[in-house]
Amino acid sequence: MPDAKRPASPFGPLDFQLVLLRRMADHNPDLVENARHELGVPIADMREANKRWQAMLHAPRGRAAASRYRSILGTPESSVHRKIGDLDCEARQWPVPLWPDLRFEVLTAPNGAVWNEWLVRAPGATPPPLHTLDDLTPWSCTVDEAARAFAPARPLEGTAPTRWGLAFTAPDTQGVRHRCAAEFTWGLLQRTAISD
Questions:
Q1: pLDDT in tens, 152-185
Q2: Which domain of life is it from (predicted)?
Q3: Do 185 and 153 belong to one domain?
Q4: In a domain, 186, yes or no
Q5: Is the pLDDT of residue 105 over 90?
Q6: Does some domain include residue 40?
Q7: Residue 3 above 60 pLDDT?
Q8: Does the pLDDT value for residue 66 go beyond 80?
Q9: What domain range is 177 assigned to?
Q10: Alpha carbons 62 and 19: distance in angstroms, whole number
Q11: With contact defined as beta carbons under 8 Å apart, do 113 and 126 qualify?
C-alpha cells in the first residue's frame, strides 16, 4: 500500500512571500530567482505556494480576505485608523522579511471588506530618491512613492489582479521630460516604459 500523502504545513509568511514573487516573475524573473535563492526555496515550492493561495482565494467557504491575512501573517505589526477622502478605513501592516524596508498593507472598510492590499514603505524607512527615469528601477519604489515624486500622476488600470499602473511625466538625466507608464505588482514597481 503506498504511503499516505503527508498533510501540507500551514500556509505562512514564507509561503505568502513566494506568492508575491510569483506574480512579479512575469516582469523580473532574474530578481525573483535571486530572491527565491535568498529565501532558500526551490521553484517547486513557489509553484505549490501559488497553487495553495489560488485554492484559498477560490474556496467556496474560504475565509474573508481580512481574516485570511491575519491567519497567514499573524497579528499586524500596526493597525491604525485612516481617512482617505470620505472613506474611513483601517490600515493593517505586516513586515515582509524579503523587503525589510517595506510592509504589506491591507486597507479594510468598517464592515471588514478589503479595499486594497499592497506593499508600502515601512514607517520611518527612508524612501528612495526619485528624480529621473533612471531612478525608476524594478523594485525601487512603491505606487505611492512614484505618484508623489512625479506628480501629477494618473492611475491606470492594471493588466491583472494585484497589478496597478501609473501615467506621469518624468525627466531623463538630460532634463528632457517624457510621458511614461509604470507598472506595479503588489504595489512594487516592476517596469517603466516611455510612451511618447
A1: 999 998 888 889 999 999 999 999 999 999 999 9
A2: Bacteria
A3: yes
A4: yes
A5: yes
A6: yes
A7: no
A8: no
A9: 133-194
A10: 18
A11: no
